[in-house]
């Protein structure tokens, strides 16, 4: 499995700047909800699950607004939404801070690099341990717990005004993998976002 397999709805970003919304279970109103916000429906060959895209031109304020409106409407149908995107991050009236932490969830082990002491402290508080090249979560940790650690660490970074970027390892939307044969996850309610801040779920 991968990080994008654990929730009904996963919001993410590709390296080339697309914002995507991936559905791991059928939500009949989702196509209307997302296309009303400018997402384009796309199902690359073999993915086995609906995929909706915003182009790189919408990154920032537009992606933040459009994705947020869609997400709040999707909450009427599921609370199981995880936001791992970086293209939707935006702050009114000022630029986003440079990422203090880069998370890489594309390999066999979740790793992170940090460039400030405050960011390193937050990583340590969320289960990351030092390695030769930065930080990592324990190799034997269950994948759903790793996902929770990354999301919660990013929230903690944001609350201290520190930037973060989660790399999913998808260069373009065509790299998003096929759905696993069996996707198993436990729905958890999202944390309510603060006004005018990027949206995240726990």
Q: How would you describe this structure to a colleague?
A:
The chain has a 5-stranded mixed sheet with strand order 3-4-2-1-5. The protein has a 5-stranded mixed sheet with strand order 8-9-7-6-10, with helices on one face. The chain has 4 helices and 10 strands; from the N terminus they run E-E-H-E-E-H-E-E-E-H-E-E-H-E. The protein is of the alpha+beta class and 202 residues long. A hairpin with a 6-residue loop joins strand 6 (99-104) and strand 7. It has helices at residues 30-36, 61-74, 117-125, 143-159, and strands at residues 9-13, 19-23, 40-42, 51-54, 81-83, 99-104, 111-114, 129-131, 134-136, 163-167.
Element layout with pairings:
Elements: E1 9-13, E2 19-23, H1 30-36, E3 40-42, E4 51-54, H2 61-74, E5 81-83, E6 99-104, E7 111-114, H3 117-125, E8 129-131, E9 134-136, H4 143-159, E10 163-167
Parallel strand pairs: 1-5, 6-10
Antiparallel strand pairs: 1-2, 2-4, 3-4, 6-7, 7-9, 8-9
Helix pairs in contact: 1-2
Please tell me how large the radius of gyration is.
16 Å
Order of strands across the widest beta sheet?
3-4-2-1-5
Q: H/E order of the elements?
A: EEHEEHEEEHEEHE
Q: What global shape is seen?
A: globular
User: From the structure provided, what is the oligomeric state, counting identical versus distinct chains?
Assistant: single chain
Average residue pLDDT: 84
What is the total tally of β strands?
A: 10
Which runs of at least 5 residues are low in confidence (pLDDT < 50)?
Answer: 183-202
Give the DSSP E fraction (strand runs of 2 or more residues): 15-25%
